[in-house]
Amino acid sequence: MITKMKKLTFLIYHKEYEQFLQDIRNLGVIHIAERQTGEMDENLQAFMQKRASYKSLLFSMFSLADKQVDEALHTEESADVLWQRFDRLQARLQELKQRLVVLEKSMLSMEVWGDFDWNTIGELAKNGWYVQFYTCQDKEYDESWEERYNAITIKKTGKSVYFVTVTSAPARLDIEQVKLPEFSLSELKGKCVETQREISCAEDELKTFCHIYYRTMEYYNSSMQGEIDLLQVKLNSERMAEGSVMLLEGWIPEENEAEVRNLLEKSGVYYEIRNANRNDNAPIKLKNNAFTRMYEVLVRMYGMPDYAEFDPTPLVAPFFTLFFGFCMGDAGYGVILVLLGFFLKKKLSVSLAGMMNLVITLGIATTVIGAVLGTFFGVSLFDLDLPDSVKQFMVVGKIGDTGYDKQMLLALLIGVVHICIAMAVKAISSAVRYGFKESLSAWGWLLLVVGFVCTGGLSFFEVISKEVSTWAFIVIGSVSAIGIYLLNDLHRNVFVNIGAGLWDTYNMATGLMGDILSYIRLYALGLAGGMLGGVFNQLAFMVNDAVGPSLGWLFCGLILVFGHALNIAMSCLSAFVHPLRLTFVEYFKNSGYDGKGKAYNPFSVVKNK
Length: 609
Known about the structure:
α2 packs across α6 (185-235), α3 runs antiparallel to α6 (185-235) and α14 (406-434) runs antiparallel to α17 (494-517). By secondary structure, the protein is of the alpha+beta class. 62% of the residues lie in helices and 9% in strands. The chain folds into four domains: 5-76 and 205-275, no CATH class; 114-179, no CATH class; 313-396 and 520-592, no CATH class; 404-517, no CATH class. Strands 1, 2, 6, 7 and 8 form a five-stranded antiparallel β-sheet that branches. It has a three-stranded antiparallel β-sheet with strand order 3-5-4. It has a two-stranded antiparallel sheet with strand order 9-10. β9 and β10 (379-380) form a beta hairpin.
């Protein structure tokens, strides 16, 4: 549910303004209302750009420290100084790596000529003998050079020839002379080893720096966020009475009113508090029980509800759980998820450990629904020798002689119920938000769809006679038509309403059927996962029979572990994405949910992690 909010208006004397901001910041429950100030303040923009750089720096430091950081703070140096030290260490490391690349290229070019001393080449030149290095294609090589220039072939690789000339005067061949490094091969190898040692030392130094100063930079980053928050609050204040009085507006949850009043009475500032109404752009604070709270993250992915809307989380939670279990469709996989959730809950941080509660919940749902669907690690439970009292709870096989799969029809039935609930939410929300008269069209569609579905179901199971169902269809259709075609907007001409009703009918006829058919994906994904698990089982035992008892069980176990692990990973991905789509598209569209609200974010002291 959405927490009821109170709107506050403050008038503060300018000399008491800074202290007042510090007081409400320490209280940490007031969400400051934003004003439309046009372009962003240059000072605020500079702060935000700097903080973005800090976040990027923190990400790099955490990776370089191998996610192992010192918890102590070292604030004897400023953030800018630490940043400069980090840049120097990185620049030094980058310079060494570039030097190593150059040395390796030089060493590669010298390997073909072998290891020789350049001093010897220089001594020969002093004594009138010039040694020059050449390379050319095999077809370009002229054997007469061996007599004219004392050409000596050093190496042939593929179609290339590497050779030197030894002459009393510099030779002038029609091919390009090779330019070699000024160091010998052994010297280059030594320099590579030394550079690699320096790189290792530089990497260790950078890693140590990141390990020691990560928390310090995190502290400075949090402090920067505090400065940004304070500057934003000041920008949302309005100067009045020639700057002597500051006007500030904010929001608080209803349960925090007493402590806020107590603070304001002590501070002596003028204030007003009133209830937020549905037309106010009040921030949203969700308040749900422990089960529903786990699914608030899904609602936040789409967008927070408007203050005039209903919180969709209480309905998203059970249906998403049902959808996920249906898509996984295997009780064995559910057990794995539960065990994995409990294991990771002990290993991860507190913030991530909370997500494991959701994994455990979805694992339990998968176990229960997988048992109902009759699948355990790809094995059909219905085909096992289980008591009939257990099998009667499994939804497997066809319905009589109709040829319709029970699981497919169950998925469609779930879709019909989900869409009907969405339409009911839309009708109720419209009545509460705009008044009953403005929601007659929504009620008409709700009556038409739900009435036809219920009447059709009762007639199909022969609870009511065909004559009664016929009259029920006529009455429901007639009453619904009044709301859909005549009373959809009481402020418009009746003929315009009829035209709008016909357009809505076209959209509903084409969209509603497609929405319901989308729920077949629940059946399809569960079926695909179960079939793939069964294939891995068959493959594993086929290998076992083929290889024999000695190595058969080893290969069988490897195939089972790898195959089911892969299937679980793929099934989890699809079981998360597709139920999310059914929620965001089919449900939210038919429930009229906008999700354009702004989350409650109180002005408070930024806590360092």
